[in-house]
Structures
1.
Amino acid sequence: VDAQFELCALRDSDAAAHLRYVAEVRSLTRRGAVMPSSAHLALGALVLIRGLLMRYLPHLTALPTAWLVMLLALRPVSMSLEPGSLLGGVHQKFWDRAAPPLLATACALVAVAIGADALISAVAGALCVSAWRAGLAAIATSTAALGVFSDALAMSGAPPGTALIALGTGLTLLGMARLRMRRSLA
Amino acid sequence: VTHPIARVNPVIHQPIRLGILTAACESKKIDFVSVRELLGVTDGNLSRHLSTLEAAGYIRLEKTFAGRKPRTWILATSAGRAALKAEIDALREIVAAADAARPKTHKGIRAQPA
């Protein structure tokens, strides 16, 4: 009876408030699944380290191995960054899981076709789409702009690794900024 | 043609239940603790609303164990997804109808409610 009474008193402003609430819960749930801040931090750090190695230790023979080890460490590192968060408690829907690798592949192919850096384009594309799907438009736009800037830097003939250092630094800073923001409705 | 208010679902119109169903529909599955943190509710309150949604057939609860710790997963059913979609459509129609009925100002901008 109470519920029916509430419905009778429903105004358009209440309906609009409910719609805003649904949109916010959707964004927060996706954010809990995608973890854009951890992804930016972890991938940013990996790209930065790879850029620094390419720039200052180009003859390091262990470079491919180090890259592989860092990739394998990505998941545990991102898990330790957000303890007590939604981590592990939200299983992604198919498109949330598939969108970043699909866009990364598409960006890498376009980059190869136009002579840009495939790694930069793939990383920026994947992080951009995951931030966008998490409802973080500003982070997504900044990531895309950072990717374009880094690609332009690589294409302009900057020393090896410089573009990766720029992208890695930018992504890490974006991730750190995002981590400081509020994560919960509570 | 029924007024959109008649199509608002009393089971999921309650904000916490609306939040639970939205979170469940937005993921493949979501655990009890995550929903509790997301919505800022107590264990007892959440359990009660979960029971209501489960009884209506909108969600399914899955119990697993992580070591010795029990873990409850919340999954949206197809009926739950359909109900959420219908609820959102009805809410949108209410907002649109009110917006259309609102008098326009001299610049053609609709007046906002007080």
2.
Amino acid sequence: MPNNNTSEPVPPTALPSAERIEACRTALEAAASQAGECHETAGIFGWAYGYPVPAQPGPEAERAAV
Amino acid sequence: MRDDESAPRIGQAKLAETPPVVLMQPTTLCNLDCSYCYLPERGMSRRMSPEVAAAVADGVGKWSERNPVTVVWHGGEPLAVGLGYLRSLLEPFGPGEQYPVTHAVQTNATLVDDAWCELFAAVPMRVAVSIDGPAEQNAARVDWAGQPTVDRVMKGIDALRRACVPFNVIAVVTDTSPGAATDLYRFAGELGCEVLGVNLAEKKGVYTRGGGPGEETASFWQELAACWQNAPHVRVRELDHAYTYIREELAGGADRRAERPVVPLPMVTWDGEYLPLGADLAGFSSRRHGPFTAGNVLRTPIATLAARGHTVPWVAEALAGVAACRAACAYFSYCRGGQPANKYFETGRLDSTETAFCRTGRINLLEGILRHAEQQHV
């Protein structure tokens, strides 16, 4: 379903993020499965960094570099 | 970057020794004068010497024995040094040891032409372009004569596309009103970029006017998450980051995420000063700490500077700030401690906790994603 923006403020919830994430597990798993892996970001350059490094060098390590 | 349990411990925050990325400042000069820019010396031309590049290359080669390393040529505008000069700075870097050394460049693209594209393809260098969205969103991006630059940026992007050089985009967003995220995401898709990075305008460095966007940013992020999920053809850096955390949270790994050491993101300035983190502090001084540097690569091997970086007082203060975030913030396992430069420029200290950047760029982002998911869940 298209989820259009709204300018109306949404009341803050008292639930911790972890509980809200768990409550939406199915929807979030579906979205997260399409997202890339990105452990750290810095606004001043256009890549993710800080991927966990695989045990042996190879194509995965090369992809992890940027 | 390894989860190195032997990394130095400052309170609860550890700084890993070997960085996965090194930012290089080949010049302080930028040929543009964007009104929101944080850089203090962008009107001056101070070029990095080949000796500085060689000193960094030596350390990077050693680090590549432990993990992949990306050298990011930043600025100023890195292409302003000229093609031949940048090539001379690239020369000392080898392909890497156990892991590869790769190169990337962050550019405004106004100087990109076919010759630059040949260099990008030959090295190879990954490219990220700064452009704020459709033409009307680029009013802040002017040259030193105050003239618009978006046509020159688009000409550079056309050269990249002709040469089949893939590129990412960073957009500084000042308009977070309804529809703005949709327009930005559509624009990124039409450009053909691989990854879109979204920076909400913020008070930082020599740019002190803005408090930037406010509470409405949760709706902006919600809209962006919805656009991306409906047609995920462009990766969005901020969404990738948030969903990586969500994956770890759903897998029960949030505590382990929180335990990981702080990942260094060092900057080497044009004259060889080394900052282990807080790259956007380069060129600034504080009354308590003096210039933000941990030493100079021309006097001390960069690997030594990295290994003892956590002992430098301002770095230790920044690591104490991460520990303070961990103690105080419910979002720590997601954010992992905020950005040192934002803390300093907003509060005057590096050991403070929540900033406007945390609220608009992290907390409201997660809030937008959760609202989107909750609407789907109903």
3.
Amino acid sequence: VKTVVNESGIEIRPRYTREDVEASGGFGFIGEPGGYPFVRGIHPLMYRHRPYTMRQYTGFGNPADTNRRFKFLIENGQTGLNVAFDLPTQCGLDSDDPLAAGEVGRVGMAVDTLADFEAAFDGIDLDAITVSLTVNGAAPQLIAMYLAMAEKRGYDVARLRGTAQNDILKEFIGRGTWIYPVAPSVKLVGDTIEYCARHAPKYSPVSVCGYHIRESGANPAQEMAYAFSIAKAYADEAIARGLGIDEFAGRLSFNFNVFGNLFEQVAKFRAGRGLWAKIVKEHYGAKRPESAWLRMIAGGGGGGLTHEQPELNIVRGAYYALIAALSGAQTMALCCYDEAYTIPTEYAQRISLRTMQLLVEETGLADTVDPLGGSWYVETLTNEMRKKMEQTMAEVDAEGGIVKLVAEGAIQARVSAQAYRMQRAIESGEFRKVGVNCYRSDKEEEHEVALHPYDEEDARRQVRGLEDIRAKRNGNDVQNAVSKISAAATANANVMPAIVEAVKAYATVGEITHALAGVYGRYREPVRF
Amino acid sequence: MSAPIKIVLAKPGLDGHDQGAKVVARALMDAGMEVIYTGLRQTPEAVARIAQDEDADVIALSSMAGSHLPFCERLKPLLEQAGLGERLWVIGGNLPRQDHARLRELGFKGIFPSSSRLADIVQFVREQAK
């Protein structure tokens, strides 16, 4: 019999029995759905009570373009929004910055001031649909803009729900929208957690991402372990400000990937739920059960999709959605079949949305909690995956902690070496990818993917709008507010109150970045192989 | 024995997707070439300056976020002014087929869209450099 080892390094047996579960640690660390350690799910009824939120990642061009696509998705039954910002916005630059040339509105929506948030969410009820902002380096500004926009429209910020990605440590490992050096970047995450805990306690200020670490080459066990190490770094930062774990842990959320072996993935999520609960309860001493919930968006799967035979990605997406549902994800999103080529078209977005809807409506996946629970295979693998994650986290601590390892470029070098080995294994045919190294087709050109058009006039319109706001706003108010940001940063105080005031005066994303970088400096990437 | 082929591999613009660039860098190094990987956020001016300082045989870009044409249009005259017009220019990443002719016109002899094989990239560079 041929040996099978999963990506996390666990040998898979051809069959499993009750004895295998016992040998791996038994049934003791599972609990009931809605009960500690939440391996079976964070709620007693899960999807029977409410199906997962469907939240496709969307945004392009200017805020008006994105607003139209949001409304298209809502009309088609989407239940959450996840905003994609263009790279200048994510890197803290204004649309007229020379470094933004050619990139305004290209891979997401351009934002310069509060006016752009007002336009993007015009006519959308923020109580009826929750909004997730995929922004990291520029998260302080954009969280402030979201809260200010909602307040201006009459929503009570103390009751407002929503999420910001705001996980800067993973940006240094993969994704790359960092701005400031590592230490002040972590400090800023602490500022947002503290500010939200005190002023917007229903808002989730951080979504810790294993997702992009996996995309950069980590295996599934490392994906969870590095994410939990990062989440602990943020929790430590919040606790150092005098917050109690129960004041913020319930608003931490997570973002994980779903491509790969189905059983390894389901075990990964079940194990991860138990491990995070254990960390929050035993290490941090949380008392509220909600503090220990691993609330997550699971989906995407971009790293598993292929450029070759792109329509196969529709099939892969359906399996990825199945994995997320079998794993008890609170929120789901799917990469679209055309994403190896383009910003998804409306057509592709609708296929992804329908895939997630179909699973709820036609397959019975929403009927019963944790349907794979009790499988000897899945329970054994859940125990084994948890041990792998614990081992990896212990290694990180022994090497000096995740913040140090990220600052040195050590994690980056490790995962990129693994990405290289995986690419070699795919090219040699050792790791099978259909359409890539087996079952190839010579007729790929028959299925030309329609490309999302990039409109340069949209970018010019965005710059004209920015010039307009600069001319109309009260320059003194902006200057005062921005100098308060510099003063708070210099005093090592929380910069969020000053940033909120600045965005209300229509200070730009770039002006706020400039003020912070004036104190913190800018990150220089350590390149290690 | 002649000196190894020297490659400056850059990430142009604000694009943060560096998994592919780092994988290709390792493949070229494994093939015995010298790779200077610039890291993220390089301007056209920075790419030309680094390539000139290093006297690179090959100037390679990895672009995943769609701004390859405006970037390469700005880079071309800078490389030429730096006296690197006759060196090998290659680009990889998310490069729609409709843009390949324009990239070739701009002087990029090697175009490696997503799903290109490492072995093909290495072989092309080995044959075309110098």
4.
Amino acid sequence: MSDRAFDDFLFIEGLDLDGDPDSWGIWTGPGDITLNVISGTTGSAVSRSFVGGGTLLKVPPIIDGIGLATKPINFEVSQVLTATRDMVFGANIRGARVTLNRGRRDPATWLLAANPEVLFVGRVDTVDGQIGEAGGEGRIVLSCRPDLIDLNISNPAMKSDESTQERFGGDRFRRYDVAQIIARKWGKQSGTGKSKAK
Amino acid sequence: MAALALAAFADLIRAAQVDFTLEWNQQASRAADGEAHHASRGAPLFRAKITSPAMPIAEALGLMALVNSLQGSAGTFLLYDKRMPYPSSDPTGSTFGAATPVAGTITSNVSVAFTGFPNGYVIPLGTYFQIIYDTSRYYVGQFAAAKTADGSGAVSASAVTPPLPDDVDPGDAVTVLKPSGKFRLDPGSAILDHVQIGLASLVFSARQTYEQ
């Protein structure tokens, strides 16, 4: 019999309100657990602790796509439990690194078959706290973007003759600095469409 | 908020009708030929539905006050399968007495041994048992094999269901007397059903939780 149970593990590395690194682990199982999972950055096993019991509500399908476009992945976490409320409202998780691991259980033992594998590495983009009304249901939606987003960001601190003229008209200090969109050719030679590596 | 103890709530209900069902929380992948494969996505937990016999209004309202003291679905209470509070081999629990068994070697989450049962204690198939772990989390499950404790009270590795949570450890306290799980009321499920003038019966449904 193949693996017949799955657990999802979400690990978020952000900052506390003092600006110091802080991290939170939540998972779909009951109770708290500390186990080795595969790191999304090094690919080797790391020991991490996860808080369960209804913290991680929903993990959407992770869709693979071609190209540099990034699609948001919306993780849903509890708006009621202290563990997730503290993470969202009592810390700074804007841009925090998110790693999703999925563990498989062997039905013969119901133990995790191996270190949970990485399914997704990304960053928290936006947070939407949907507090339920009386009789309603709520959730906190962590909208995350894959790490690919790092290839798409522009540098807002660019300096150029144009930006200097906007602020200090007539200042020629950056006369020969030109700000322009520079196409990044990943693995291709510019203009030829041919692969660089032969 | 601490869970309502057995004596404070569950023992006071004289259940007339009881459902105590394990829900597996599984997903399916279904092929065109109709063959489906299933995998669990959440911990299997019990769901209980209890209907009390008709009782005088004052008694029913008293039980309802206890229900309301749970603050809707916020609080938890301990509940066991009212149809079988004791092993069928020991219908009053007197043989078990004040024994304090503990979980022994946990081979896997579906196979666990025990120590500290009364010597030669007979555990029929389907006997409920409870493990308190991680301070105040409650596991309730059933023996999926008929076992008998040996001359020193040890029970060899037995199949159990549902699977144990990962943080149950050897040495955690076990009992087979009124083995309970922690339950939380389904929102709005607790009602007084007025069967006739002066009499009412309490109906509620609840879901198990492993919370502390």
